[in-house]
Structure formats: structure tokens, C-alpha cells
Write a structure and sequence with these properties.
Layout (H helix, E strand, L loop, with lengths): L17 H7 L17 H26 L6 H20 L5 H25 L5 H33 L1
Helix pairs in contact: 2-3, 2-5, 3-4, 3-5, 4-5
């Protein structure tokens, strides 16, 4: 399975050239990612940039919805926020899964959070766009903080026992 930091090609074949072994001194049969020796693959270099752009886009979507600004970008950016924010919170708790499974489960969980927030607000006759964005943001922050605290707690208890 291809991941963002995997040096294996999309078809599953390993990338191996004679020039890489002669330059690095690695024994034959050892594979390295293409490019300069000792460097990460180019896809791994652009991942933080893409993540930063996604966070900015989600933040703009939340701000446009909360400020009630009429813009053509309001609907797609707010939808992006409503799907990505809970997805990232849920994905933070699923660090043990492979990237594809984590993305699928986080996407399904994000959709479930959005639907549960909307259903609850409709059942209470308290529906508003601003309230929905705030509620989804609060649940997302809660998921992320719980996952972070859980990971931090498990590290500290492991170091105390040894």
C-alpha cells in the first residue's frame, strides 16, 4: 500500500539503480528513494505545505461561516471545514492504523459527527449555521485533545513503570 512517506513506487516495484549504490556505498539489493542520497522523497517534502494549506482553507471556511460573510467561497470552504476538522480529530486517535484505513475511518467518523450535530440541533429546534460550525469545531477539538492526552498519558505511565 502506498503511503506519503513510502519510497516504494505506485506499482509496488522497488526503485533501484546502479548509480545509487556506487555513490552511497550501499550493498547491492539495498533500495533508496530516488533523488539525492540521504534525503526524503519529494512527496514527503511537500506534505507539510499541503497540510498547512488545508488548515488555512478550513480556518477561512469557519471564519466565513461564523462572521456570516456572503462570499462565493463560503459554502465550499465551510463544507471543507465541516469534513476535515472532525476527520483530523478522529484520525489523531487512530495512529495505529495504516494511512488508508485511517483516512476511511476518519472520513466516516467526520460524516457521523456532522450528521449527529445536525440531527441534535434539529431535534432541539435550535438550528443555526453558526451553532453547527461551533459545535462541530468543539467536538473536533475535544477529539484531538483527548487523543493527545491519551497518547501523552500512555507515554508517561510507560516511563514510570520501567
Amino acid at each position: 500500500m502506498q503511503s506519503f512517506s513510502d519510497p516504494v513506487g505506485l506499482d509496488g516495484s522497488k526503485i533501484d539503480t546502479i548509480d545509487d549504490h556506487s555513490v552511497t556505498g550501499d550493498p547491492p539489493g539495498t533500495t533508496r528513494p530516488p533523488g539525492r542520497p540521504g534525503r526524503r522523497p519529494p512527496a514527503a517534502d511537500s506534505l507539510p505545505v499541503v497540510a498547512g494549506a488545508a488548515v488555512a482553507m478550513a480556518g477561512v471556511g469557519a471564519a466565513l461561516a461564523l462572521a456570516d460573510i456572503g462570499s462565493p467561497l463560503r459554502a465550499p470552504f465551510t463544507l471543507f471545514f465541516l469534513l476535515v476538522a472532525p476527520g483530523c480529530g478522529i484520525a489523531a486517535a487512530l495512529r495505529g492504523l495504516d494511512p488508508l484505513s485511517r483516512a476511511v475511518v476518519a472520513g466516516g467518523g467526520a460524516l457521523a459527527v456532522d450528521l449527529l450535530v445536525a440531527q441534535t440541533m434539529l431535534a432541539l429546534h435550535n438550528w443555526s449555521v453558526r451553532g453547527g460550525v461551533v459545535a462541530v469545531g468543539a467536538f473536533s477539538l475535544l477529539f484531538f485533545l483527548l487523543a493527545h492526552g491519551w497518547r501523552h498519558r500512555s507515554r508517561s505511565t510507560g516511563s514510570r513503570t520501567s
